[in-house]
What we know:
Layout: H1 2-6, H2 13-45, H3 50-99, H4 102-108, H5 110-152, H6 154-201, H7 203-208, H8 212-264, H9 270-312, E1 332-339, E2 350-357, E3 362-367, H10 373-378, E4 388-393, E5 396-397, H11 403-409, E6 410-413, E7 422-423, H12 424-428, H13 437-446, H14 450-455, E8 463-464, H15 473-485, E9 491-495, H16 503-516, E10 521-525, H17 529-532, E11 537-542, E12 545-550, H18 552-558, H19 560-569, H20 577-583
Parallel strand pairs: 3-10, 3-11, 6-9, 9-10
Antiparallel strand pairs: 1-2, 1-4, 4-5, 7-8, 11-12
Helix pairs in contact: 2-3, 2-5, 2-9, 3-5, 5-6, 5-9, 6-8, 6-9, 8-9, 13-15, 18-19
Amino acid sequence: xxxxxxxxxxxxxxxxxxxxxxxxxxxxxxxxxxxxxxxxxxxxxxxxxxxxxxxxxxxxxxxxxxxxxxxxxxxxxxxxxxxxxxxxxxxxxxxxxxxxxxxxxxxxxxxxxxxxxxxxxxxxxxxxxxxxxxxxxxxxxxxxxxxxxxxxxxxxxxxxxxxxxxxxxxxxxxxxxxxxxxxxxxxxxxxxxxxxxxxxxxxxxxxxxxxxxxxxxxxxxxxxxxxxxxxxxxxxxxxxxxxxxxxxxxxxxxxxxxxxxxxxxxxxxxxxxxxxxxxxxxxxxxxxxxxxxxxxxxxxxxxxxxxxxxxxxxxxxxxxxxxxxxxxxxxxxxxxxxxxxxxxxxxxxxxxxxxxxxxxxxxxxxxxxxxxxxxxxxxxxxxxxxxxxxxxxxxxxxxxxxxxxxxxxxxxxxxxxxxxxxxxxxxxxxxxxxxxxxxxxxxxxxxxxxxxxxxxxxxxxxxxxxxxxxxxxxxxxxxxxxxxxxxxxxxxxxxxxxxxxxxxxxxxxxxxxxxxxxxxxxxxxxxxxxxxxxxxxxxxxxxxxxxxxxxxxxxxxxxxxxxxxxxxxxxxxxxxxxxxxxxx
Length: 584
Ligand SMILES: Nc1ncnc2c1ncn2[C@@H]1O[C@H](COP(=O)(O)OP(=O)(O)OP(=O)(O)O)[C@@H](O)[C@H]1O
Ligand SMILES: [Mg+2]
């Protein structure tokens, strides 16, 4: 895991190496200063040698200057390295997520991917910076200070080596406890983030159902939980501070007491005592820093794990060895296809679908909610892969195509479609980046989108807000159809794409399809019989199976479900799909 993350430091490696070096230089300067101090006191002040004081004083100034410079440079390089790591991690994760299939995304959920890409990366960034700076500084300073004190006075150094030992034991006991608490805290953060993201992205629904109070309650609960856990986690850390301080001052007292006696006995000089006191401070401070570094690392391991999971996820749909780059025609063959979303679930969503559609045919698909219409068409452009059997487009198994080629030729207007922030033209050019304005307009005419675009103040340059919130549902559907048409696909699939369009416009769109793109195979999923009744063939789906195939007249004569729905929609009957299911 660590090597996976570190490999992302890449072009910032020089900063990552420079940081600890600068930190070591800073430590070296910090360690020299107490020695110089001792020299000033012993050889300067006590001996009354003003010259010595001035020379060593100047040396101290230089050492302090170098230390300051090293500290600043270390901080700067550390920031470059850690921010660079975060940047690269986000980039790698984003690129990886782009290769995900629908199945991969189902596994993580979009909310969790967002948290991983933001909060988790920030946690790792902070920990990495801490590790580069404090992680080198603290142990180095600790080791050097211990060696220095032992050389100055082995006897006195035993005093605080005991203190150090005691503190280390406390650290070892407390740290795992804090780790546990912080881990719990971060899990709760996830829960809260999900609440916020879900609520904000669906704020219109929340308002429509007047669920604001309910949502606020749920949020307060998540928020309160975090409050309690943070206090519990921080409480442990807070205890550390006074404990350390108590240890520092006890040491200083013991040192002064014993040191004074040794000075009287002439086994220690005053200067040596002052430098011992400084080293004592250094050692305890280093311990404190080390404990903070530990906490940070502990906190970030959970985040690091979640990042690596995203990077390691194998896209479930990828190109084969020698992908085919050309789709011959728009014929579609389902050969005894079974499909389920989750390999471990028992029931098939689609079972034994055997269906053969000729190139250029128009096929309507009708069926109740949850009868697997969307699942059926999503298999054609390989948004999901079949579980058993196979699907051929243009006579070739879809898994043998280059995925991009296939999706260019099989254009799907998804049931849950979205527009992106940008102008109408920009959105249309998702279908074909090189489309001229003329071509875009023609596609919009076919999709009956030109009528409302012409009425907009900026026409084709009207800005669409994120998620397409400033156009109506029906307008959005028509734009999505136009966008799909611009791909000039061999197969065009409309998944309930005219549900929000009035019947007359719906008919106009279908007429345009017939006249302008007769060679394209058209699959039209609809709830209204009128949307499909003039199709060459109509498929009636029921509970993941094909219940009937035929023309409007044939189905009216032979298919009970179709007849029921037709009668209900033309006013002759009562049932619709769902009521039909209850009846059965
Ligand atoms: N991503 C998914 N993961 C797991 N199960 C799913 C997923 N999408 C759909 N299903 C399940 O598959 C079944 C068929 O769903 P599908 O979306 O294909 O129905 P549909 O006929 O398109 O319905 P509708 O008319 O409401 O659009 C449903 O029972 C649904 O719960
Ligand atoms: Mg559907």
